[in-house]
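Friendly challenge for the regulars: who can give me the structure tokens for this chain first? No prize, just bragging rights.
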Amino acid sequence: MDEATRKQVSKRLSFWLRHKPERGGIELSPEGWASLDDLVAAYERDGTEMNRAELENVIRLDLKGRFEVQGDRVRARYGHSLELEEKPHPGMPPATLYHGTPKRYVAKILESGLRPMKRQFVHHSPDKKTALEVGRRRDQEPAILLIDAHKAHEAGIQFYPRGKGIWLSDPIPPQFLSVLEEASGDSANTPRKSAASAPAPGEPRRRRPTGGFMKKNR
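First reply, four minutes later:
Bragging rights claimed.
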């Protein structure tokens, strides 16, 4: 199987296991498991030649660790819009997590917090680079939010480690959020706090000095 086909197969598998199993004629368990043999048959119906060994190889080579296998069944580790009966196991997050998002959403997020939207959980990245890659799926110069994960955890918000470099969580209130300024640049970045700690309307904002800074060539 060539790389282009492998990516297509992996993307289709994610779609079936996370969102629309009925599109492949697949039945998931209440915990999100699907039979590997049923999935092979679904690819055949979809016009993609497939055998079980090839499908298991696609799952094994997935760089994002999106899938987990147990015996003769597989499920997606995260990213579900489907309601599953089984929650992932919670864990202690790192002190800071990151979330890439289009800049146009930042003001609303700092006002009302991070929410799962169409998914079951909020998705976070363990570092700025990964969050930037995620954010660029919807904005070429996304904003990067910083989550004070330890304080949020102490306040009772649950975090769940999933896959390679993925953390899920329950909704994050705005007091645990700040924005990393100039997220798409190469220079050192400075966090900007949530709306609760921003200057009051009419209060003058501090301006960056006009001299002494040079943009890096890209």
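The chain has two domains: 3-76, 96-197. Residues 3-76 form a domain with the Arc Repressor Mutant, subunit A fold (CATH 1.10.10.970). Your move, everyone else.
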